[in-house]
Amino acid sequence: MYYILLSLKEKRHGYEIMQYVEKLTDGRVKVGPGTLYSLLSRFEEDKYIKMVSDDDNRKTYLITDLGDAVLMEEVGRLRLLLRDASKVMGGGVDEF
Q1: What's the pTM value of the predicted model, to 2 decimals?
Q2: How far is 44 from 28, CA to CA, in rounded Å?
Q3: Domains in the chain, ordered, with CATH?
Q4: Which residues of 3-21 are buried (b: 16+ CB within 10 A; e: fewer)?
């Protein structure tokens, strides 16, 4: 979910999304077509993304303001996880 929304900060069609995610993550994350298209459908229903064109059987999507807010919430959640980990892993004082 995170990488797909992140990839749609710019207009992209399905195959571009798969390529972008793989390149962004240095190959750690690969999104298959079945997963991608079911998520795109769900995100469109939830108004996280919108279809901006449908040329030559190639649907192009872009994140919406709502989708951007959801993405920013997730970024905040990930930052909190990293902060917690750095307290423990970085030699911080364990208060428990």
Answers
A1: 0.86
A2: 26
A3: 2-89 (1.10.10.10)
A4: bbbbbbeeebbbebbbebb
